[in-house]
Amino acid sequence: MSLNLQTYTEHFTNPLYLDSGRILEPYDITYETYGTLNEEKSNVIVVCHALTGSHHAAGTYADDNKTGWWNGLIGPNKAVDTDKYFVICANVIGSCFGSTGPMSLMHPHHDHYRYKFPVVTIKDMVKAQRILFDRLDIHHVHAIIGGSMGGMQALQFAIHYPKFATKIIAMATTHATQPWAIAFNKVAQEAILKDPDFKQGYYDPEVIKEQGLSGMAIGRMAGHLSFLSHESMKRKFDREYKSTDGLYELFGKFQVESYLEYNGNNFAKWFDPLTYLYIIKAINIFDLSRGYDSLAEALQKVQTELHLISFSNDLLFKSYEMKEIDNVLSEIGNTNHTYLDIESDYGHDAFLVELDKFDTHIKEILHG
Which residues, in sequence order, are bridge partners of residue 287? Predict the structure, then answer.
């Protein structure tokens, strides 16, 4: 069977009322689907992407050999089996891959929003997706799956739209972003803002695509440290030195330095800097208990079967942050949830890389 990858953009003219009290109108949402929707519309799985992800979760485009970010998990006979399920992944509001974000053109003058774009929250991203699903006449889904910021969205769905999904799987995430993660985001924010080529937000996007932005590259390097771990870096690079550099050259490089440079510089050419600032803001202010007296009160809303998965050596969102959700659910008498801490020394990015450690678990949850 084929993956049946399809990409669409929907245009909405009704106002989207945001958490901040501001309004976004009109707006677009770009999304991708895989597999085939059954007649009863009972086989839908929603996949939520992380900070720098997009709607392109699986497969490849005709003109590009780069596979979707969760390609190992989604497809025929994979854990999220597209022969069985109809999978939808929407690009979040605020992103730079087709959905309306800070570098979109503002109606009616056709200037980029830039700083006129409102701050959006994880809840806003989820609300916009829910409106998209309504338009597609999908009012209930079999499952929602997400890792990292995608996991935040999954948890937000569980509380905000308690009857929308039968099952929700949240991985490598947290119930509220902690100071460690906010601190890494601060380094990225400062690096971007202090780069003269950022031009206080009034850069030419075409120039950025061509040349990148060194501040953004530096910010990404810092972020990257939080995605890996001591062990995964040692395994990947150890103390290998670049064979073409002299040990006593001041700027001679270890392999790990080359890797960070390459990744950072590359990233700065394909991800928009203002988008990065807006999305890290959304991540920083994420707190499931906002608007409630406590996390317990928020989690009282959960009616879906909720599955929590953490990774033992995740430095960004520690296992105990997920365990806390599990504990609170148990304390309030929720018997319809599971928690699994996967033994891994890879770090935060394990949810993207070590699929063999959890794909069977996901398959069992979806089929069970």
Answer: 176
Residues designated catalytic? 148, 314, 348
> Could you tell me if 72 and 355 are in contact, meaning their C-beta atoms sit under 8 angstroms apart?
yes
Q: Which of 78, 367, 316 is nearest to 70 (CA)?
A: 78
Report the predicted TM-score, pTM, of the whole model to 2 decimal places. 0.98
Q: What would the pLDDT profile of 73-109 be if each residue is shown by its tens digit?
A: 999 999 999 999 999 999 999 999 999 999 999 988 8
Distance from C-alpha of 150 to C-alpha of 357, rounded to nearest angstrom: 19
Residue 231 near residue 217, CB atoms below 8 Å: no
* 311 exposure class (CB count in 10 Å sphere: 0-12, 13-18, 19+): buried
Q: Strand 23-24 vs strand 16-17: parallel, antiparallel, or unpaired?
A: antiparallel
Copy the structure tokens of residue 285.
Answer: 């202010």
Cis geometry, peptide bond prior to residue 102 (ω within 30 degrees of 0) = no
- Judged against a pLDDT cut of 90, whether residue 328 lies above it is answered with yes
User: Does the pLDDT value for residue 2 go beyond 90?
Assistant: no
Domains of the chain: residue spans and CATH: 6-177+288-367 (3.40.50.1820), 181-282 (1.10.1740.110)
- pLDDT tens for 162-192 read 999 999 999 999 999 999 999 999 999 999 9
Nearest by Cα to 313 from 261, 281, 349, 262: 349
**Rounded-to-10 torsion of CA 275, 278, 279, 281:** 160
At 170, is the secondary structure helix, strand, or coil?
A: strand
Paired with 338 in beta bridges are 307
Distance CA 350, CA 347 (A): 6
Burial class (CB in 10 A: 0-12, 13-18, 19+), 91: buried
Cα 201 to Cα 59, 158, 210, 273, distances in angstroms: 34, 35, 17, 8
- 3-class SS at 6? strand
Q: Which of 12, 74, 72, 29 is nearest to 47 (CA)?
A: 74
Q: Whose CA is closest to 235, among 310, 350, 354, 346?
A: 346
Q: What is the pLDDT of residue 107?
A: 86
The number of residues making up the chain comes to 368
